[in-house]
Amino acid sequence: MEFRDLRWAIVASQHRSLRQAAETLRVKQSTLSRRLRNLEHKLGGAIFERTKAGTRPTIEGQEFLDAARRIVNDTEAMTGRLKSRWRGESGLLNIGIHASFSAGNLRATLLEHQRRFPDVKPHFVDGSSDDLMSDLASSAIDIAFVAEPNPRWSDKSLLVWSERVVVALPEHHPLTARNVVHWGELRHEALLLSQHGPGPEFHKLLISKLGTSDPCPVLRHDASLDRLLTLVGAGWGMLLALEGATGATYPGVTFREVHDAEGPTRLSFRAYWRQANGNPSLRPFLDLLRERYPDLSADPGAG
Prior knowledge:
Structural class: alpha/beta
Shape: rod-shaped
Largest sheet: 11 strands, mixed
Helix content: 25-40%
CATH class of the largest domain: Alpha Beta
Number of helices: 9
Distance between the termini: 43 Å
Radius of gyration: 31 Å
CATH topology of the largest domain: D-Maltodextrin-Binding Protein, domain 2
Strand content: 25-35%
Order of helices and strands: HHHEEHEHEHEEEEHEHEEEEH
């Protein structure tokens, strides 16, 4: 029994005339009639009563047609879901996140992707640069956004955006009276540093900007950004962050840009992924990234 025969029998049942059903199907009436006869022969009984007044299902035929509709509807729905999945229009996308995205380019990119592909569900994984690159290599995540280049990664990557470095201050700290804070002004301040996210990158930045391996009192914590910002609000110290963290409000916390002699300090972000990644949802996401952040040096045909 062919799937097409079920569909044609359903259409025939929706019309009182085989001629009208054939016109709807865009086939010859003789072809439709022959296919229905063959179907009835396979089933061993009549599906339709044929009279001068028209064609209508028999009692047994109506039972068969009800079942056929369920089969056709379920099959077409399943086919539609699979095609959507293969096109990357639905499914799951595992995204490694290196920093907050309460504001900024990553947030804007994710919102645009959600608008275009509402049936693709993102799953976010937070971690340090090393953790995310390890997850990427083991296929635990599909793509990772990491601050600063990773020279050990030999697969695919794309430079996407840069973010300004900011410092989170207790709201009554004297430095909040400044429009910006310079690196030298952090030298004697207690600085909270997370071991997650871009914490290691911030420590390297401190050393390079202040010119010493012990640039200021550093209080390391194995805690996430939001918990450390709560400590800043309680007056326990300052915290370096990226501008993507400034979209959320934390009680008692004020953000200021950190400048050097040349102006704002920035960290560049790259997107990293494996060329051999088989998740269909990754391709449309990469297309969106290239649309928003074109790599003019890249081969247009490269994966």
